[in-house]
Amino acid sequence: MARYSPQSWPVKDMFDRISPRYDAANTILSFGMHYIWKRRAVSVIPPEYSGGKAMDLCTGTGDLIAFLKLKFGEVYGVDFSPKMLSLCRERYKSIEGLNLVEADAMDLPFPDGFFDCITVAFGVRNFPDLGRGLSEMKRVLKEGGFLSVLEFGQPRGIISPLYRFYCRRIMPLVGRIVTGYREPYEYLPVTAESFPCGEKFCKILQEKGFKMIEFRSLFRGIAYIYTCIC
User: Fold this and answer.
1) Residue 83 CB coordination number (10 Å)
2) Contact 19, 83 (CB under 8 A)
3) Domain spans, the chain
4) d(Cα 149, Cα 165) in Å, to the nearest integer?
5) Which CATH superfamily is domain 6-229 in?
6) Which class for 88: exposed (0-12), middle (13-18), buried (19 or more C-beta within 10 A)?
7) pLDDT tens digits, 3-35
8) Model confidence over 210-220: pLDDT tens digits?
9) Type and span of the H or E element at 178
10) pTM of the model
11) Are the beta carbons of 80 and 104 closer than 8 angstroms?
12) Contact partners, residue 93, CB within 8 Å, separation at least 6
């Protein structure tokens, strides 16, 4: 049975509840852009890592897995929501070399230096302890291993007030209509607004010992892709 930190339980239960309609809500709320961004988060992985062992942390229903399987021989999809993993398992039941593991990002059940590459899409802002989660990822990455993080940011300029209105007013309403739950779609924009994006997150990665840190803005800062080496 997976081990969970006490702080992880509320978020785990939230994702369990919205899992049946999670993919539909994501596609509607992002106008399909999340698939494009996730593909880019995998496309930035250098070719020299191909054929190794990769983990998609906070995999959810496994959107990144299809892209990772094109690059890596062995892929692990890890999530703390058993209901999300159940949907992922059904989705990829015909794919070989895929391992789905129920685990908390705060306490990964893998030995040191186990993976060549780790991806995380829209997951790190939900870590109850960001520093601990990053340390765990660094621990299970091989020396010189590659990390790709896709996460929401806070757009600036003319789009900023429009984006805040959409997140605070429209997103909870649409989320309730699609999934039956409003609260998760009030919580998720709050975590996105408070996440230390851009240079701030790069500094945290550096403090945790990651190197060659780079980031790129997507759609005027609505999301960012961060890459670094262990």
Assistant:
1) 18
2) yes
3) 6-229
4) 26
5) Vaccinia Virus protein VP39 (3.40.50.150)
6) buried
7) 666 677 788 899 999 999 999 999 999 999 999
8) 999 999 999 88
9) helix 171-179
10) 0.94
11) yes
12) none
